[in-house]
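Hi Q.,

Before the meeting this afternoon, I wanted you to have the adenosine-5'-tetraphosphate prediction in hand. No need to reply - just skim if you have a minute. The sequence and ligand are here:
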Amino acid sequence: KPRVFSGVQPTGNLHLGNYLGAIRNWVKLQHDHECIYCVVDLHAITVWQDPADLTRAIREVAASLIAAGIDPTTSILFNQSKVSAHAETAWIFNCVARMGWLNRMTQFKEKAGKDRENASVGLFAYPNLMAADILAYKATHVPVGEDQKQHLELARDIAQKFNHDFGVEHFPAPDPLILGEATRVMSLRDGTKKMSKSDPSDQSRINLTDSPDDIEQKIRRAKTDPLPLPETVEEVAARPEAANLMTIYAALADESLADVVAAFAGKQFSDFKRALTERAVSVLSPITGEMRRLVADPGYVDGVLRQGGERAAAIAAPILAETKRIVGFL
Ligand code: AQP
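Predicted structure with the ligand bound:
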């Protein structure tokens, strides 16, 4: 079976973008792939995290993943800091990747903002750690949202440069799996900005912990233009807010965007938003309920992460030993 690796940061509640762009695909891949899914706490601390909040977020994100359908008896689910191969491989990759490569990463530019001198070194080197996450297991398939495409290309470059520098065929070049209709879910307040955990406005996103009332209210207030719904797929492309809501609908309903356009062409947004709310609540409510049940029993979640960490470490250990041998460590 092809080996899959993917991760999610415990930096807050998971949102609809994480779910439709990544996690839902993780669930589907479990049947015919060997899946390793990671709550990437080492990545989270590239920006300041309050320690108690971080601990809680690791448990909650793990619980959300299980609630969303990750089966920890088949897939491996753990938090990154449990397996030291990530950090060890990342250091080697810090010495393989070039400053120029990292200087081109758009996510660093967005997250560091204007005050780049004050960003952590970890935030800059983040893509090297992400390459290490994947290659520490020689994973070949990486299901992510569109925003991670550039980092995946960097992981391929690192694998190729490592192999070339040492004259080996050690690391496979991993492929991104960018699947489904909603590979880039946008903010509900601004159709040109991606939906994100770190957006200061909670109205900009639908969290997996939101109640049906929250969901209804956020969709009702979501920004739209004053026109009725678009009548063609071409028209959708020119109207970012309509495009975002219709794409979300298509993904939730497992329909194509063209089908959604056909069903709602020329209708009013108020009608469409009611239908969208119904879809969102019916997909998300069962996940929210199950997640609440799981976080009430942290012993269970902690046990899953501990066992997952042991299984992950067993796969990573021989690969890391070989990596070190190739580099020449005695
Ligand atoms: N808006 C999105 N649409 C589609 N996919 C998305 N992903 C994130 N946002 C969207 C995908 O979710 C996975 C996990 O993301 P992450 O939490 O590790 O990192 P992120 O991309 O940094 O997510 P956020 O929400 O934007 O967090 P902050 O605000 O903390 O940076 C990834 O596969 C990602 O593609």
